[in-house]
Amino acid sequence: MLKKVISTVFLAAILAALTTSTLSARAIPDTYRDTATVEPYGTITYRPILFTNNDDGVVSITGGGSTKLDVAVYDERGNLVIHYTGYSPYVTFRPYWVQGMVIKVRNLGGVSNTFSMRTN
Predict the structure, then answer these.
(1) DSSP bridge pairs for 101
(2) CA distance 67 to 61
């Protein structure tokens, strides 16, 4: 009788784990894309964009070339994870768990800059 109870509990735990991983895998979008214009010395904030801990997170900014852009990624607690500055900055990082990351794109120049952003 005890073996039957232990087997039933073990099977239930396995099914619960499989159901949870299947549901969370479907909740993560494949990519996020946007095109925007950031004003001189302005900032555009994207929040939150979900990243999984199974792959490296990638944020790619393709700027218009008129000014340098700074891209910064913050975790769900507000900690800076990574940032990079350039005409078309590109950053990669490894999330510790599935979480929404805040992405800020800042224009470092005195004229507007239209950019495209893509994440994985």
Answers:
(1) 49
(2) 13
pTM for this prediction: 0.74
N- to C-terminal Cα distance for the chain?
Answer: 50
What value does the mean pLDDT take over residues 46-73? 93
Contact 40, 112 (CB under 8 A): yes
Where is average pLDDT lowest: 29-33, 67-71, 108-112?
Answer: 29-33
| Domains with residue ranges and CATH for the chain | 30-119 (2.60.120.380)
User: At CA 103, angle to CA 98 and CA 106, rounded to 5?
Assistant: 170
Look at residues 102, 90, 112 and name the one whose alpha carbon lies nearest to residue 41.
112
Which residue carries 């004003």 as its tokens? Answer: 39
Q: Is the pLDDT of residue 7 over 90?
A: no
Highest mean pLDDT among 1-15, 49-63, 68-82: 68-82
Structure tokens at 34: 């946007």
